[in-house]
Every structure is written in C-alpha cells, then in structure tokens.
C-alpha cells in the first residue's frame, strides 16, 4: 500500500530569505534580488523520465501537495507560486509568513478544473498519483496545454539511476528545481546542508554492531481500525535504518507502509520501536499516545522487551515520508539510538 501523501512536521534548517536568480558574467546563475529573475536563462531537467523545459523561471507555479509546497518555500519561491493544495497538517512556524502569500486552490487533492483556474506555468508534485485524469490531470494532458510538470524523483523508482539513495534523490529534486527556478545557489546550499546532516547521523553507524548483530526496529506509522501500519522495504525508514546502523524488521515486505498484524510485529520481536506521531492529522489511532496504548493493551505485543522496557522512540510521523524535513527525523533517530545504548 502506498501512502497517499508525502508529508512532514518540522525542519532543523531555518527558512532563509527568498532566493532568486540572475545571469552571471560567466553564464552561470547566481541567487540575487527580485529584479534579476527575468534575466535567468532557459533551463531543462529530467523528471521521472520526462524532459522538462522552461524558457525562463516560472512565475505561476502550483504545488499539488504539502511536501512540494514546503520544498518551494524552502527555496524562497513563495512570490512565484500561484497555488498550493492538499495541506494535511499545520505549516511549521518557519514557513508561516511565506505560506500566507500562496493562494490555496484546493483544501484537499486538486482537480484538473481547480488547477487550470490557477493559470499555472509550472506544476510540482511529490508523488506520481497526483497526476491522474480524476485528479490534476495526467502529465500528458498538462503538456498538451504547454504546462511543464515535475514529480519528485523519490516517487519514481523505475526511472531512477541505480544505487541512488532516497536522500540523494531528494537532494537531486532540490538541485533540479533550483535550475528550473534559477535559484541554484540556494538549492545547492540546501542539498549540501542536508547531506551534512545525513553524514552526521551516519557517524553513529560506525559505533553500532554490524551484520546480524545490528539492532532491529519496527516503525509504527499508524493504527487504523485497530491494525498497525509499519514501514516496509520501499519506504524511507529502511534507508534511515541503514544510515543509523539498525535494520528495519519489515525489510522483507516490498511496500512503503504495509498493513500487518500485531502478531507479526510480535514475531519480529524488534530491539526497539519507533512511533510516528501523527497527532495533527487527527484520525483515530494517529497520536503517539494512542499507539502506545494499543501496544501496551495488546496481550502479546505488551510482553515484548521493547515495549516492556520502554525502548520506544517518538518522531514526527510525517517526517518519515520523504520531504525537505526528513533529515530532522533522521537526527532524532540517531540521537535515540545513542540514548538507548546501541552506539558504543
């Protein structure tokens, strides 16, 4: 089961001032003041197997989900956004002022009519399933209207270069969007800062036992109708586990967030458990407290050492899906591993 939206909660990287671009004397582009935007040259990038070209930096971009919206805000592009949609949680404080400048074209998933009414000259989405006939329209349909479309490389596994990690794919998104919008310096800095954060989290891995001695972890994302949804092999938490020196206990399930049974969780008997707190989403079973209650109230799971000894970490749940804020959750996991005593 693919999770329906790519979301997040907080960033450790502060929102900087809005970036823009100009043509430098050597032909390269640098971030500069508002008057320089129009002079930025044309750009072309590849997005999920499609060549995406613009004659100049877009001036009326629409982001179809919160993940894409916050990436554009992090790049300082709020003044060049004609719309946002599908807000699933509160906008973090560092983005509030910038977000207030962006029209909301749809409170939930945008339809083709809502998108077209915004008059976009560029569309960005965090997942391919937002580009369907019954949603914003297919990429082919939008191309026929001369509207370029971009989708996160993280949600395009069949088109990605072999060996690229989910975090590297995220960073390539920043850099490609920087080329399109002429904010290359800012995009490169964001990617460099987050690479450094990933490297810092990975320093812990060298202090953790290798091979079969690595601690195992179950990521509990949600509890719906009493059933747990956990991180499978294709979700970002598997990569997070590798970075911090742990092993995702459900790495044998090739899905992002599969539904499993509590008995299966008990059979995996993880060394520790990561709870994704989705309190702001507000559905039954979303809060960390409800998830703890579900585990301690279960006749089998409650007997697991990880539950009994409170080897449980809490992170913002929506940061466990790929977004500009996922490095924050990674840092929390690395610290949590140390606090639990797994790092020598």
Automatic annotation (TrEMBL):
A Pfam family it matches: Peripla_BP_2
The reply on keyword Signal is yes
Disordered as annotated region, ranges: 24-43
Q: Where is the signal peptide?
A: 1-23
Name the UniProt key words of this record, in alphabetical order: Signal
What are the Low complexity biased-composition ranges? 32-43
Q: Which residues form the Fe/B12 periplasmic-binding domain?
A: 60-344
Q: Supply the name of the protein.
A: Iron ABC transporter substrate-binding protein
């Amino acid at each position: 089961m693919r999770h329906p939206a790519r979301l997040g909660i907080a960033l450790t990287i502060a929102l900087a001032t809005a970036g823009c671009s100009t043509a430098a004397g050597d032909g390269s582009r640098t971030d500069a003041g508002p008057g320089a935007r129009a002079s930025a040259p044309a750009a072309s990038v590849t997005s999920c197997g499609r060549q995406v070209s613009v004659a100049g930096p877009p001036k009326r971009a629409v982001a179809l989900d919160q993940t894409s919206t916050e990436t554009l805000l992090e790049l300082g592009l709020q003044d060049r956004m004609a719309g946002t949609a599908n807000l699933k949680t509160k906008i973090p404080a560092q983005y509030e002022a910038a977000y207030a400048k962006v029209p909301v074209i749809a409170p939930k998933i945008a339809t083709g009519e809502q998108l077209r009414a915004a008059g976009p000259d560029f569309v960005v989405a965090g997942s391919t399933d937002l580009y369907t006939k019954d949603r914003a329209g297919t990429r082919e349909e939008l191309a026929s209207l001369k509207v370029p479309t971009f989708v996160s490389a993280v949600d395009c596994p069949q088109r990605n270069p072999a060996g690229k990690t989910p975090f590297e794919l995220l960073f390539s998104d920043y850099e490609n969007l920087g080329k399109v919008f002429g904010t290359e310096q800012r995009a490169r800095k964001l990617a460099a800062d987050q690479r450094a954060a990933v490297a810092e989290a990975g320093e812990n891995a060298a202090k953790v036992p290798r091979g079969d001695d690595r601690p195992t972890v179950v990521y509990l994302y949600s509890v719906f109708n009493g059933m747990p949804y956990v991180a499978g092999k294709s979700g970002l938490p598997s990569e997070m586990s590798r970075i911090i020196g742990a092993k995702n206990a459900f790495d044998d399930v090739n899905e992002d967030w599969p539904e499993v049974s509590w008995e299966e969780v008990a059979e995996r008997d993880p060394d520790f458990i990561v709870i994704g707190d989705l309190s702001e989403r507000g559905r039954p079973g979303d809060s960390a407290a409800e998830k703890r209650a579900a585990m301690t109230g279960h006749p089998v799971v409650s007997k697991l050492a990880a539950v009994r000894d409170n080897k449980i970490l809490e992170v913002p749940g929506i940061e466990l899906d790929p977004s500009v804020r996922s490095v924050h959750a990674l840092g929390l996991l690395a610290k949590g591993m140390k606090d639990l005593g797994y790092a020598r």
